[in-house]
Specification:
The protein is an alpha/beta fold and 444 residues long. Strand 17 and strand 18 form a beta hairpin. The longest helix is centred in the last third of the chain and has 15 residues. The termini are far apart.
Length: 444
């Protein structure tokens, strides 16, 4: 399949000038993924039958007022105000009479859920069927795949757990000249240190106790294709120099042998750890990082691509599932999704089970799950849940707690880890999740 690069502004029929876009996400009982309007300067009326000189007619929702709300764009600023509607105007879950709007804000007018995007005119996109979504961030990933896949560049994918690093790696493989070869995946965090060399490079029968037969190892199993090394930041330090040599030479020496064996592979690596911070901390070799980081990209968390939530839910639900209630649609879009697409798939499964025989899937079916996960795993906990430095509860800390710990220990990760009773690797996961650099908290 030919994959072409396009500018989003051209694909959507919008002008090249960047500016706010109003996207429809949900309309009455229908998930919407392909409807948007550029917002012109001045006043734009929204409603079921708007009459203003500039207006956007929102069809399909019988509960909308004829003139429901008004958008006011002045230069780079955008506001919304309610037009004395029957059912009110809501911004990010709060009823408003008037409110400023920013990129990513969610608007609900009766049973219609909308979103504001301030989208750059030079944003690129491409055709990559494996990466679903209409958000600018997913468009950038598709663009990255099409640019990177035809090359032999070793690639590093950085992202929180559940953001789809494995899906991204498979998309790169499928779009490459190696697509006819194997795609082999290895979770580096799951390899026992004592067996890491054998697991990666193979061994000869009898090379060590328990080696009853020859083993190819992951490198040779991926010969002619792509080796996806997930959680490469967790790779034991003792194996890192041997991995560097194998990548540079494109050859491995199986355990129990002395002769190198050539391997024609392309490596895609993934990590939840900030590898540059790990290099500074001495837990990841700088020469290995330099060798694997020909191309580096970050995968966006689901909370930054809200317009993709409902289409993904629709994909994960069984065909023929009842439609979503508007309050559920709004809640799903507003939820923080600390565990990203993997969590969304789990929520969709529970919705499908609990919603059997229902006319509509309502918020009460999974409200307990959204509340529980928000309290235990979200990036931004409420002020009432924030604690002093030190971690007494079972759930992960919020951003403010990690910052407090960084300040207390002056950015020294090893001391912070001892204080928190966690490993340095876990601390680096939190730092990556919250976009924090320990060097910013070092004393002069």
């Amino acid at each position: 399949m030919t994959k072409t690069l396009t500018r989003v502004s051209e694909k959507d029929g919008q002008s090249r000038d960047s500016g706010p876009i109003l996207r429809m996400l949900f309309n009455h009982e229908r998930i919407v993924a392909d409807t948007s309007w550029p917002i012109a300067s001045g006043t734009t009326e929204l409603g079921r039958e708007p009459t203003g000189a500039q207006h956007i007619t929102l069809l399909g929702d019988p509960h909308l007022s004829r003139q429901h709300a008004i958008l006011e764009r002045r230069g780079k600023t955008l506001h919304i105000r309610d037009a004395d509607s029957r059912n009110g105007t809501f911004v990010n879950g709060q009823r408003v009479s008037a409110s400023p709007l920013s990129d990513g804000d969610i608007i609900r007018l009766s049973d219609t859920v909308l979103m504001i995007r301030f989208q750059s005119s030079d944003h690129m996109d491409a055709e990559v069927p494996e990466l679903l979504g209409n958000s600018p961030a997913i468009g950038q990933l598709r663009h990255f795949v099409v640019l990177t896949a035809p090359t032999e560049a070793t690639t590093v994918l950085i992202g929180e757990t559940g953001t789809g690093k494995g899906v991204m790696a498979r998309a790169i493989h499928k779009a490459s000249s190696r697509s006819g070869g194997p795609f082999v995946s290895v979770n580096c965090a799951a390899i026992p240190e004592a067996l890491a060399e054998s697991a990666l490079f193979g061994h000869r029968a009898g090379a060590f106790t328990g080696a009853a037969r020859d083993s190819k190892g992951y490198f040779r199993a991926a010969d002619g294709g792509t080796l996806f090394m997930d959680e490469i930041g967790e790779l034991p330090e003792t194996i890192q120099p041997k991995l560097l040599h194998a990548i540079e030479e494109r050859a491995v020496v199986p355990v129990g042998t002395t002769a190198p064996v050539k391997c024609d592979i392309r490596i895609v690596a993934a990590t939840t750890v900030d590898l540059t911070a790990a290099v500074q901390a001495g837990t990841f070799r700088p020469d290995l990082y330099a060798r694997i980081a020909d191309m580096v990209t970050s995968l966006p968390p689901l909370r930054s691509r809200k317009e993709d939530v409902l289409p993904l839910i629709r994909m994960f639900l069984d065909e023929g599932s009842p439609p979503l209630h508007p309050s559920l649609a709004e809640a799903l879009v507003l939820y923080h999704w600390p565990f990203n697409v993997r969590e969304l798939k789990t929520v969709a499964t529970e919705l499908g089970v609990r919603g059997q025989g229902q006319d509509r899937l309502e918020l009460k079916l999974i409200q307990h799950r959204l509340v529980e996960l928000s309290l235990s795993g979200s990036v931004e906990a409420s002020p009432q849940e924030q604690e002093a430095p030190g971690l007494q509860r079972a759930g992960p800390p919020n951003r403010e707690e990690v910052i407090a710990l960084l300040k207390t220990h002056k950015g020294v990760v090893s001391e912070l880890a001892r204080s928190a009773g966690r490993s340095r690797k876990q601390i680096y996961r939190w730092l990556t999740q919250y976009g924090l650099d320990p060097m910013d908290y070092r004393s002069d």
